[in-house]
Each structure stands twice: as C-alpha cells, then as structure tokens.
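Researcher: Hi, I'm a grad student and pretty new to this. My advisor asked me to get structures for two proteins we've been looking at. I'm not sure of the right format, so I'll just paste the first sequence and hope you can take it from there.
Model: That works fine. Here's the first sequence with its structure tokens right after it:
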Amino acid sequence: MEELITNAPASWPTVRLKGFVPSNRPEHRKANQLHFATAVESSFRGSEVQVLEADVIRITPGGAVQVPLRVRDKEGEYDLFFYADPDPEAAGHYEALQALARKTGRFRPIFYSTDDLTLIYPDPPAEPVARRDRLYVSASLFPTKGQYAMWWAERPGERFLLSRTYEIYDRIYHEVAGLETSAFAQILLELEMIQDEEEFALMTSVPSRIEIPLLGPEGVPMVASFSPDRGIRFHLHMRHATSEYRDAFLELFLARMKLWKKERPTPRFTIADSPPLNWWRGLWKRLQGNEEEQTAEVVGSLSR
C-alpha cells in the first residue's frame, strides 16, 4: 500500500492506495479513479473532511471539467484529481487545471499522486482539461418548482443589456442564425430524445413552442426552450443558479455550437432567414427605447 503525495492541506488525513495501475491512459483511468475514491472515503471517514460526490462535472467559462472526487472541510469545497503516473504530461494537466481555476474561480483542484507533480517539469496535456463537445445535461422528469429565467438581477441597478449574459446570448443568436432548428436538435440528440436532426425537423414543421426541463452540470435545474420565432433559450432556476454558473453554461453552449458548425458545412443565410435573430434585435431595440423595461429585474421568466 503506497502513501500518496498531495498538496492538500496538512491537516487532512493521509491517503494510502493499492491495486491501481500506474498509468494515466484512458483505459485504466476509470478503474484507478474508483480505487482512489474508495481509498479517500476510507481515509477521511471520521475526520473533518467530508466526501461530497464522485465523478462530477464542474463548468467554467473555459468548458466542462470532469472531477473525480469533491470534498469539503471547514475552509470550503475542493476538487481532487488522482494521477496514477506522475509523468510530465500529468504535471502539465494539473498545471492547466490550476491556471483555469485561477482564471475562473469556479473550482479548487488538489492533486494526489505517487510523486510531487509540482516538482516535475510539465509537458502540454494530451487532452484539454475542459471539454466543450457536450453540455452534460439530462432530462428532468420531476422539475424543481420555482421561478426560472434567462437572466435576473442579483444586485440593485443591474441591467440585462449591460450584463455578461446579454453579451453571450448575442453571440449565440448570431452563431446559430438560420440554423436554430438543427442547433436545438443537437441538444435533443445529447438527451437521446431523437435519432437524427431530420426527426426534429419534422416535429417542428408546424410552428410551436417546446420546453424541456433539464438538470444541468452540477445538478442545476433549468429549462431549454425552442420556438421558430425566438429560437433557443435557457431558463435557469433563480434559486439554484448563480450568475457565474449561468454565464459559464451559456459559454459552454456557445462553444458547443462552434464545434458543431466546424464539423458540418453550413449554408449561407440572410437575416430574413432567421426570425429568432430578428426577434433578438427587436428585443434590444425595445429595451433600449423603454426605460421601464431597461430596469427590469427578470428577463425570460418561466414558472414551474
């Protein structure tokens, strides 16, 4: 049984591990993470450090980060990463995690390995530390009751048109203009609600509004809505989502759409081909010209 090296707080219990494969390769990763999670849970039992959950997704403006284990002590929550082989690539991966954490402030990475990663000269990681090819959402059969919205003010005087949320939505509307039906189909494909884009195109041949309750990354309730005239919108639960989470999720969706467009040829379009983009521009004009609406505290609200 080997004692693991870590940069965790000195007050935390020591973690010892056996039975793992000294490799960071994908085919060994899941089994190694299971051994690690079991060892941590056993070592931390009865201590001030509480194991919260294993194999979770944390979203950041840079993408979604898969976290093997999350724990909490009196100072807050931490995200634990296990590197079975402390090679330069592992050091590079952890260094990239730290950089992303410093930039976004959305997670706190701690490493465990058989050597000190901070003393190893890092190589660039073979895989990105944050993924942008999925939204990590699942359909919610029993949506959380409450108020959902595209945007809401968290402090007095905040305005939608001046918010980061508005800026990201503006980029989304322009990115998928003319392709809204196919873009929403990508969400349904990830949810395994349809088999291909054509199936959804047939469903939307008659103008209608679709609302799908979801659980987003980190278990945050939200509703994805689609209509031919307003396009794709996400309404997040106002009590369960912070503004940082809201913007990080929208950034993830925008990045997902950019990757999707790279993978397929996209036809040229005109503004007239995109009623949602026209609606979005009309919303901007209406908000600009109406002082009462400019100071609205909630935009795009839904109740469940």
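Researcher: Oh nice, that was easy. Here's the second one.
Model: And its structure:
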Amino acid sequence: MASSLASPTLAIPQPIQGLTVRIPNRSRSSSLVKVEHVGDESQEDALDSAAYENVNVEWVNRKGAWLIHPALIFAGKMVVDTIPGMRQDISWFLVNLIYLSLTYLMFHWVTGIPFQSDLHGGVYDELTLWEQIDQGAQYTPAKKWLVVVPILLFLASTHYSEYNPWMFAINLTALIFVLIPKLPQLHRRRVRFMVEDEYPSQGNTPSAPATPRSGSSTPTSSETQFNIPQIRTPDANQFSTEQ
C-alpha cells in the first residue's frame, strides 16, 4: 500500500463580481436659446420693496409724465430736420429708430436702480425699469401708454416713408424687439443665447459595463487552487507489529 496519498488539488473559480455602476464624466454642453427666471418673488422681497417708495419709477405716474414722450419725439424730429438735404421719409425713419433704441435701452436693458438701492435690500438689482413700474403689475395705464406710443410712431414713420418696403421691414423689426419684452409672459425672464450647461441631463444617467463574453474571463486551475491537506494512512507492517 502506498505510504501516503497524493495531495489532490481542486480548482475553485473566482467569485462572480457584481456589476459596477460607472458614471461618465459630466461635460459641458451649450444651448442655443435659454430662458432664465430672475429675481425672487418671496414675501420677504415684497416687504423690502414696499418699505420705501421706488424713486426710480415713481415719476412714470406723475402728471405730465405721459407728455414727455411726444415732446421728445417732436424735439428729435426738429433736430434731425436741421441736417442739410434731409428728406421727410428719412427723417421719420431715423426718429423712429432712435426713439425705439433709446426706450429699449432705458426700459428693457438697464437693470437695478441708480440710487438708494440699499433701502430695498437689493430687490431691484436684477429687474429692468419696465419690471419695476407699478411693482410689476400688468396692464396698468402707464404701461398701456408706453405700448401705444411706439406703435403710433411706427405708423407715422410708415406713412411718411410712403410704405417703402425696406424701411417698413426695418421699422417693423425694431418695433417687435421693443414690444416683445413688454409681454406679461416675459416678466422677470431673460432670453439668453449660446449658454453653456455645466451638467446636461443626458450625462447624469449611470451605466453598467458590458457583460463579458462567456468563457472569456473563466479562471483556470493555475490561477486559483484550493489545497487539501494530506491524509496519512498507517503502514500495514507497523499495524501488525503493534498487535
């Protein structure tokens, strides 16, 4: 009988690893057009805005404030007419563009208030002059008047330019750019172009790696072995001698 048994080895495969969730790197992406909401319409901001009168817009509802616009238009018309060789169609065309450009910058481009901003806790820092008028209320008499004036000036410019198609197209485009920010749907909203999104929605979805092909990662006996301790059996001659 053999003095000892050979030490058998048993190959045990490695434990199956669980699926690992891999989150891809979040890259930046750009949007062509993005509408953002500015300002906070909380109760605290409402109290700060009502604590003191906003002197930046209180002149809009004063007596005679509505006459400022026709007076400035006719004054600008007289100044433009003093240019040598100026025609009436070109004169009204320039007056219309100048008025629309100035009102757009004044009511829809500049934000905040130039003085006493600390009295309101910075409530008006991100709001335009149009959004500050009448505490943001829509369809007030002052806002209706500010909508009617550019429309009447556009009609006058179109009439005196004898409905020139090029002048009409330019005047209409300028009028649209001035009227769109006055819409209630764009109150406290900013339309921005080519804005980069730091974390796009499609990059946040985790994904798992592909399942390996069957047999491609099966461990072999040379990689992992489980050694069974040797089992020694007594020798037959030694057993008979002891008896």
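Researcher: Is there anything I should tell my advisor about the second?
Model: You could mention this: Residues 29-203 form one domain.
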